[in-house]
From TrEMBL:
This is Beta sliding clamp. InterPro entries: DNA_clamp_sf, DNA_polIII_beta, DNA_polIII_beta_C, DNA_polIII_beta_cen, DNA_polIII_beta_N. Its main location: cytoplasm. NCBIfam families: dnan. The lineage of its organism: Bacteria, Bacillati, Bacillota, Bacilli, Lactobacillales. One of its GO terms (molecular function) is DNA-directed DNA polymerase activity. Residues 252-370 form the DNA polymerase III beta sliding clamp C-terminal domain. Belongs to the beta sliding clamp family. Transmembrane segments: none annotated. Residues 1-125 form the DNA polymerase III beta sliding clamp N-terminal domain.
Length: 377
């Protein structure tokens, strides 16, 4: 096995593959990176058993400057190998294998590192009975960004650490909840044929890594099987295991009517919450209070140790009943951030029921953030 490659192109591919490699694994070989050199391409694979990333560098792509002398395969310690490649002196590098030892040369520098046979590396999942669809990378990025914030980080309820995807007709619905807040995003596949109905739960951690890889991509092909989801785009294939179990029924949590409504610029509200948080973060319960009275709104925060803050909100519109409601400011600020600076509507039923935050004019809950209030008495 021997090849020469452009170092910068190689580094980018190594960085992307390394997203799937963890030093904390019960399978030692998964701390390695797999290299499979074929007649016309180099295939890199990284995995942590939950997610796997495979990137193909072709000789046909001139930016790779890939020259293949002899085929073969090996796995090399990922951290050492990637650091070596990053610190090599010349624009190109050559890697050759003798037995289970890799010789890496570039300019006047040379390294030898020990590897393991590629045959010992776990095989990637083979999908059977898949359902597939295509969507734009921009749509998938938005879907992930607007829902991952509400996924739980507590392993006590593993099912809630995932993003629940439901496919029906030409729509994809994504929902997350950690039982304190909920995010929902529904997108319509433009120009796509009707897709098969499906319901899967993909770990939010996997989606977080996928989102980083999607920047600059155009179209993503998605394949779903009984226990795996596979995303293919550009020269990358991304595998994620699915979470097993039934996701909670979330539609019933979303209020269908509102007794009090506020329409306000997201940036204005976010700034006021930032200031209220300066004190609320110093208190034990991290709560701010929204008071609506006589068509006026005020936000306040209180810390017995530090003091108090009050700020009148400059809302575009206030309607409905008077209300006092307490909530975690971080949850609302996260919701405002993913709605990307638009004018938003906050809709309340009572001070003890969850309230929703939607973009102005939203009528069918396609972009929705729900927050559960905090009981302060």
């Amino acid at each position: 096995m021997k090849f020469t490659i452009n170092r910068q192109a190689f580094i980018k591919a190594l960085n992307d593959v390394s997203r799937a490699i963890s030093s904390k694994t019960t399978i030692p070989i998964l701390t390695n990176l797999k290299l499979d050199l074929q007649e016309d391409q180099l295939v890199l694979t990284g995995s942590n058993a939950d997610i796997s990333i495979q990137i193909t560098l072709t000789a046909e792509d001139t930016t790779n400057e890939l020259t293949i002398e002899s085929t073969g395969g090996i796995t090399l310690p990922a951290t050492f190998f990637i650091n070596i490649v990053k610190h090599l002196p010349a624009a190109n590098m050559t890697l050759s294998i003798e037995g289970l030892q890799a010789l890496i040369t570039s300019g006047s520098a040379s390294f030898k590192i020990n590897g393991q046979p590629s045959s010992a590396y776990p095989k990637l999942p083979e999908l059977t009975e898949t359902k597939s669809l295509k969507l734009s990378a921009a749509q998938l990025i938005e879907l992930i960004a607007q829902t991952k914030i509400s996924a739980s980080t507590q392993e006590s309820r593993p099912i809630l650490t995932g993003i629940h995807l439901s496919l029906s007709g030409n729509q994809i619905k994504a929902v997350t909840t950690d039982s304190h807040r909920l995010s929902q995003r529904i997108i319509t596949l433009v120009g796509a044929e009707s897709v098969d109905e499906a319901s899967v739960i993909i770990p939010a951690k996997a989606f977080n890594e996928l989102q980083s890889l999607l920047e600059g991509q155009n179209v993503v092909e998605v394949k779903l099987s009984a226990n795996q989801a596979v995303f293919t785009f550009g020269n990358t294939t991304f595998y994620s295991r699915l979470l097993e179990g039934n996701y909670p029924e979330t539609d019933r949590l979303i209020p269908s009517e509102a007794n009090t409504e506020i329409e306000i610029d997201a940036g204005v509200l976010s700034g006021a919450i930032d200031r209220a948080s300066l004190l609320s973060h110093e208190s034990r319960n991290n709560v701010v209070l929204l008071t609506i009275k006589d068509q006026q709104a005020e936000l306040s925060g209180n810390s017995q140790e530090v003091g108090q803050v009050k700020e009148a909100l400059s809302a575009d519109k206030i309607s409905g009943d008077d209300l006092e409601i307490s909530f975690n400011p971080d949850y609302v600020r996260d919701a405002l951030r993913v709605l990307q600076g638009k004018t938003v509507e906050l809709k309340f039923t009572t001070n003890l029921r969850p309230f929703i935050i939607i973009p102005e004019g939203e009528t069918d809950n396609k972009q929705l953030q729900l927050v559960t209030p905090v009981r302060t008495f």
